[in-house]
Design a protein that fits this description.
By secondary structure, the protein is mainly alpha-helical. Helices cover about 60% and strands about 5% of the residues. The protein has a single domain, classed as Recoverin, domain 1. The chain starts with a helix and ends with a helix. The protein binds calcium ion (2 copies).
């Protein structure tokens, strides 16, 4: 069964998020942001990143809230997301490897990234992404999350 592998992969992703977090404070140092983006599957030019960081951390504190950062990454860097990295992320999240993300699997995304999202919100999110209405999110549907938001 690929279950063990899946758990390892999931842990690896979790570790990546935790690794870039400053001592579990929910913040990330601006100097780590570039490496973190690569882990998440974004290939953002330095110039674009510098401008974005300036906007998100105007007082130059050197620390950014993880939440704020992730929201910004999704909003600003969608055109820099690389398909193969999105696929990798999708594979990690698709714990039973059936090629679809269920609300339960989406829930783990929220848990891993530290978002406090209610089940209603998760279901809502799945409903928005679930274009063909089969109750689960395919890779194509998942990709729109990165392209659209
Ligand atoms: Ca699945
Ligand atoms: Ca679907």
């Amino acid at each position: 069964m690929p279950t063990d592998l899946t758990k390892d992969q999931l842990d690896a992703f979790k570790i990546a998020v935790e690794q870039y977090q400053e001592n579990g404070t929910g913040t990330i140092a601006t100097k780590d942001v570039a490496a973190f983006l690569v882990t998440l599957g974004y290939d953002v030019p330095d110039e674009v990143l510098t401008n974005a960081l300036h906007e998100i951390d105007p007082d130059n504190s050197g620390l950014i809230e993880m939440h704020t950062f992730l929201s910004m990454a999704i909003a600003k860097f969608q055109s820099y997301a690389r398909v193969e990295q999105i696929q990798k992320l999708f594979d990690i999240l698709d714990t039973n490897k059936d090629g679809y993300l269920t609300p339960q699997e989406m829930r783990r995304v929220a848990e891993i990234t530290g978002f406090d999202i209610s089940d209603e919100k998760i279901n809502e999110m799945v409903q928005i992404l679930d274009v063909d209405g089969d109750g689960k999110v395919s890779f194509e549907e998942f990709s729109t999350l990165f392209k659209r938001m």
